[in-house]
Design a protein that fits this description.
With about 525 residues, the protein is mostly helical. The protein is built from 25 helices and no strands. The C terminus is likely disordered.
C-alpha cells in the first residue's frame, strides 16, 4: 500500500503539472501552469453549465425519470473516449518504463496507481455529466437519505466499467498489433477501425419515429438500457428504490475493475517489453539515395514522425475521421427522414447555411502543430540548428497538419453539397470557410506551441493531450466557430454576411500569425 501511495502521488504530480508549479524556479513555467489550470477550469465550467441546461430542460418537459439512464450513458461514452486515448502512453509504451520496473514495487501497485490517475480524469467528466442531473432528479423524486446516497455512490462508480471496457479494447488492439512487423501502423489501423465500429453501431440504433420530445426521450432511454445494462440497473435502483439492483450495479463496477487489474498484471510486462523491441532486417542493400529541398525533407521527416506515433496520429485525426463518416452518412440518408427528424424543409434549409461552420468545427478540434514543437523534446537542437530558415521548419509543420485537414474538409464539402444542394455561392463557402479555419488552426497551434512548449514530457500523451497549446488552440477555435454557427442557423438573413466575415477573419488571422512567428530565430527555440 505504501508503494501504491508513492507511485500514485508521482503519477498525479507529473500528469497535471503540479510538480512544475510547486518546484520550478522559472516564472514562465509557473505562469504556464496557471494558464493551464485556468483553461481546465473554463472547460469544466462550460461543461457543467451545459449539463445543467440539459437537466433543467428535461425537468421542464417532465422527463426526469430518464435522467439516470441518459446521464450514465453520456458519462460512459466520455469515459470510453478519454480512456481509449490515454491507455497507450500511460499503461503501455511509457518513456519511463525501464526506470519504473526497476523499482522495488509490485506490478499491481504500479497498474493501480496509473489507473487511479486515469480514473480521476474520468471522474471529473462523470461529475460534469451526472451531478447536475442527479440534483434535479433528487429534487423531483425525493428518496430520502438512501436515495441521495445511491446517487452519490453512482457518480463515483460510473467511470469504472466503461474505463475497463475501453482499456480492454486498447490492450487487445496493442496485443494484436504486436504480431505485425509494422506495429505502429497496425495499432493505428486497428484503433481507427474500433472508433469507426463504435460510431457505426451508434447510428444503427433503431429509428425513433416519435411525434413529441417526451416519446423520443422514452425511446432513447429504452435503447440506452438495452445497450448499456448498468444504466438499466441504476434506473431501476433510483426509480423504484431497489437496493438489490443498486447492489448489482456496485458489484458489476467493482468486480470488473478488480478482474481487469488481475488479468492485466499478468501480461503488463510482456506487452511493454514487446513494444520496446524493434524488428531488424537481415541484410542491408545499398540503394539510390535521393535528394530533396529543405522544405520537402523536413516535411517528410514531420510526416514520418506523425505516422510513427499512434498517440499523436489518433488524437489529431479523430476529428477528420468523424467528419468523413458524418458526411457519408448524410449522403446516404433519405432527405425525407431528415426533414421529419429536424422538423421540415425550412429547418434543413437553415441547417445547410451553417454547414461551412459545421465542417470548420471538426477542423478546430484536430491540430498537429500545437504539439509538434513540444514533441521535439531533447532532440530539438538537431532540427533548429540545421542550416535552414525557421520559416521553412514552420511551413513543413503546417503542411503536415493541412495534409490531414484539407482532404477531409474537401471530401465532406463535396458529399454535403451533393446532399443539401445549396445555391452556388453558399456551396462555395462549403469549401472556402473550412479551408480558412484549417489554416488558422494550424498556424495558431504552432504559434502557441512556440510560446508555451513542453519539453519535459514523460510520454507523448502529455505533450499531445495535456499541453497548454493543445487546450488553448481548441478553445480559441471553438470561440471562432460556435458564434457564427449559431447566428447562421438562427438568423437566415445574416447567414451569408457572417460566413464571409468569419472566413476572411480566419484567413487573415492565419496570415497575421504566420508573419509574426516567422520573425522567430532558431536561438529562441532552444531556450
Amino acid at each position: 500500500m505504501n508503494s501504491y501511495k508513492v507511485l500514485f502521488k508521482v503519477q498525479l504530480l507529473s500528469s497535471f503539472g503540479f510538480n512544475r508549479f510547486l518546484h520550478s524556479r522559472d516564472k514562465k513555467d509557473r505562469r504556464n501552469c496557471i494558464l493551464m489550470g485556468a483553461v481546465y477550469g473554463i472547460l469544466f465550467l462550460m461543461g457543467t453549465l451545459y449539463s445543467i441546461a440539459i437537466a433543467y430542460g428535461c425537468r421542464q418537459m417532465g422527463m426526469t425519470d430518464l435522467l439516470p439512464s441518459l446521464t450514465l450513458m453520456v458519462s460512459a461514452v466520455l469515459t470510453i473516449i478519454v480512456t481509449f486515448m490515454k491507455t497507450n502512453g500511460i499503461l503501455f509504451g511509457m518513456k519511463d518504463y525501464d526506470m519504473v520496473m526497476s523499482l522495488p514495487v509490485s506490478v499491481p501497485a504500479l497498474l493501480l496507481s496509473r489507473l487511479t490517475a486515469v480514473y480521476l480524469m474520468n471522474l471529473a467528466a462523470a461529475a460534469i455529466a451526472m451531478v447536475p442531473s442527479m440534483i434535479v432528479y433528487g429534487l423531483e423524486h425525493p428518496g430520502g437519505p438512501g436515495g441521495w446516497f445511491t446517487m452519490l455512490v453512482s457518480v463515483f462508480l460510473a467511470p469504472l466499467l466503461p474505463m475497463v471496457l475501453s482499456a480492454v479494447a486498447s490492450t487487445l488492439i496493442l496485443s494484436a498489433a504486436l504480431r505485425f512487423k509494422y506495429r505502429n501502423l497496425a495499432t493505428i489501423l486497428l484503433s481507427v477501425g474500433a472508433i469507426l465500429l463504435v460510431v457505426g453501431a451508434s447510428f444503427r440504433m433503431q429509428n425513433m419515429n416519435a411525434e413529441d420530445l417526451a416519446a423520443i426521450g422514452q425511446a432513447a432511454a429504452q435503447q440506452v438500457n438495452a445497450v448499456y445494462p448498468p444504466a438499466a440497473l441504476l434506473s431501476e435502483a433510483l426509480n423504484h428504490g431497489s437496493m438489490l439492483y443498486f447492489l448489482y450495479f456496485v458489484l458489476l463496477s467493482l468486480g470488473s475493475t478488480g478482474l481487469f487489474l488481475l488479468l492485466l498484471s499478468l501480461s503488463f510486462a510482456k506487452i511493454n517489453t514487446a513494444l520496446f523491441s524493434h524488428h531488424t532486417g537481415g541484410t542491408y542493400k545499398m540503394q539510390h539515395l535521393g535528394t530533396a529541398s529543405p522544405l520537402a525533407a523536413i516535411y517528410k521527416k514531420e510526416f514520418r514522425r506523425l505516422m510513427s506515433s499512434s498517440i499523436y496520429l489518433l488524437n489529431t485525426s479523430v476529428g477528420e475521421i468523424l467528419l468523413i463518416v458524418l458526411s457519408v452518412l448524410f449522403l446516404f440518408t433519405d432527405k425525407g427522414q431528415l426533414q421529419e427528424l429536424l422538423g421540415g424543409y425550412g429547418i434543413i434549409l437553415e441547417f445547410s447555411r451553417s454547414i461551412p461552420f459545421v465542417i470548420s468545427l471538426f477542423m478546430v478540434m484536430s491540430c498537429t502543430t500545437c504539439a509538434s514543437i513540444s514533441l521535439e523534446g531533447k532532440a530539438r537542437w538537431c532540427l533548429f540548428t540545421a542550416p535552414v530558415a525557421p520559416g521553412t521548419i514552420f511551413l513543413a509543420k503546417i503542411g503536415v497538419n493541412l495534409t490531414l485537414m484539407l482532404p477531409s474538409a474537401g471530401i465532406a464539402g463535396i458529399f454535403l453539397a451533393i446532399h443539401f444542394r445549396p445555391d452556388p455561392l453558399t456551396g462555395l463557402f462549403f469549401f472556402l470557410t473550412p479551408f480558412a479555419y484549417a489554416f488558422f488552426t494550424a498556424v495558431l497551434g504552432l504559434a502557441l506551441d512556440l510560446k508555451y512548449p513542453r519539453y519535459d514530457w514523460a510520454t507523448e500523451y502529455h505533450a499531445v493531450k495535456q499541453g497548454l497549446p493543445v487546450l488553448a488552440t481548441i478553445g480559441a477555435g471553438m470561440l471562432m466557430v460556435l458564434p457564427p454557427l449559431a447566428v447562421t442557423f438562427l438568423i437566415s438573413s445574416w447567414a451569408l454576411p457572417v460566413t464571409v466575415c468569419f472566413t476572411l477573419l480566419a484567413g487573415g488571422g492565419a496570415w497575421y500569425l504566420y508573419r509574426r512567428i516567422s520573425c522567430f530565430f532558431s536561438s529562441n527555440l532552444l531556450q
